[in-house]
């Protein structure tokens, strides 16, 4: 169950980051509310996951999935460039998390 909590927490982390972009400095009410809800939900689910998973595994995986998901959605939804440097950095993040696990 801890892994399910962690995956859901990571999904909320991605939603949190993407909502911040759409909130436009908290000037748009719906995306701004989504920022708050996603942040609270993500952290709450992460704490549930940490009941059974070590912090040295759970937190890096949460942040890595959040980072990877945000990069992917930034490219797909916002037209951000996927440069060679950005792609290499994503690969290194994945390698680091695999090494921790």
Q: Tell me the span between the first and last alpha carbons.
A: 17 Å
Structural class, by secondary structure, is: mainly alpha
Q: How many independent structural domains?
A: 1
Low-confidence stretches: none
Largest sheet: none
The global form is flat
Beta-strand content estimate: under 5%
- State the order of secondary-structure elements, H for helix, E for strand: HHHH
Radius of gyration equals: 14 Å
**Rounded mean pLDDT score:** 95
Please give the count of helices.
Answer: 4
Number of strands: 0
What helical percentage do the residues reach? over 70%
List the helices and strands and how they pair.
Blueprint: H1 2-23, H2 29-49, H3 55-78, H4 84-100
Helix pairs in contact: 1-2, 1-3, 3-4
Pfam family, one: Multi_Drug_Res
Subcellular location: Cell membrane
Protein name: Guanidinium exporter
Write structural notes for this entry.
- This is Guanidinium exporter.
- Its main location: membrane.
- Pfam families: Multi_Drug_Res.
- InterPro entries: EmrE-like, Small_drug/metabolite_transptr, Small_multidrug_res.
- It comes from Zestomonas carbonaria.
- By secondary structure, the protein is mostly helical.
- The protein has one domain.
- The protein is built from 4 helices and no strands.
- The longest helix has 24 residues, at 55-78.
- The radius of gyration is 14 Å and the shape is flat.
- The chain starts with a helix and ends with a helix.
- The mean pLDDT is 95.
